[in-house]
TrEMBL record:
The keyword Kinase applies. It comes from Homoserinibacter gongjuensis. This is Histidine kinase domain-containing protein. Residues 53-140 form the Histidine kinase domain. Gene3D superfamilies: Histidine kinase-like ATPase, C-terminal domain (3.30.565.10). Keywords: Kinase, Transferase, Two-component regulatory system. It comes from the Bacteria.
């Protein structure tokens, strides 16, 4: 329920990515799944990419818990040294064959959110888990971002 509430922000709602990712991780406290967040580059994410990156991270975490039976999920948001910010979500779940799975709503919307953020989605999965990576151009943004939405 919290994920849904976060994804439908009101017009001009304050949306600080590092805080939202930490709250996403806290949602799983006591669930048997450890979700960690390391997001020192959150302030460099362009305004237009904040919400879509959060939604990709949330979908990836939920998929890891729901489908992969993961016990550890790591969310990382770092500058890559080439003018980009990279969001990575890794889990230790059972993985899957991305070519052998029909593109469901979750994978499709993650790809759409990646495009909306100005990046693309790289998905790698195998028996040792799944990694999702999105790179977006870094900005000189501020720590707190005002997200403007249209209804």
């Amino acid at each position: 329920m919290r994920r849904v509430a976060r994804s439908v922000r009101t017009d001009r709602a304050v949306f600080e990515l590092s805080v939202e990712l930490a709250e996403l991780a806290a949602d799983f406290a006591g669930s048997g799944v450890e979700v960690s967040v390391d997001a020192p580059a959150a302030w460099r994410v362009p305004v237009a990419a904040v919400r879509p990156l959060y939604l990709v991270a949330a979908e990836a975490v939920h998929n890891a818990v729901r489908h992969a039976r993961a016990t550890l999920v790591e969310i990382e948001l770092r500058e890559d040294g080439e003018g980009f910010v990279a969001l990575g979500v890794r889990d230790d779940g059972r993985g899957f064959d991305p070519d052998g799975v029909a593109a469901g709503v979750g994978l499709t919307t993650m790809r759409e959110h990646a495009i909306e953020a100005g990046g693309d989605l790289d998905l790698r999965s195998g028996p040792a888990g799944t990694t999702i990576l999105i790179r977006v151009p870094a900005s000189a943004g501020a720590a707190t971002t005002v997200l403007e939405t249209t209804t």
